[in-house]
Amino acid sequence: MTTALADVPEASTFVSAIEQAGFTDRFNDEANITVFVPVNDAFDKYEGTEELLDNETALVSFLGYQVVDGRKTPADLARATLRTKQGGDIKTEGTAGEITLNDTAEVLCSNIQTANATVYLIDTVLPPPD
Length: 130
Hints:
This protein is 32% helix and 31% strand. By secondary structure, the chain is α+β, with helices and mostly antiparallel strands. The protein has a seven-stranded mixed β-sheet.
């Protein structure tokens, strides 16, 4: 998955976070997952980006919160509560082709297929619940 995302300039901050956490192999080897990837602009507007990237514990929790088991289609996200690898939930709503996560993040590009994952590019950083 990270190999495919490396070719998406808008996802470079997320890919860097994966590399910084030492999770490249984990993201590449995990089978049948869905990953919600904040684009670079999302990190730019998120006030906690620097703290997140500098705190290994927070970074690991954040990365786990972006991943759910199974390859989710847009139809699966019409109205769902998804348990993340971090242990928190992401609530999804979808209407008229638009998908929202946790009432804050909008999906910019959906259903990107990689060898092991389905990827959704989102416009907002989703911090994990405390």
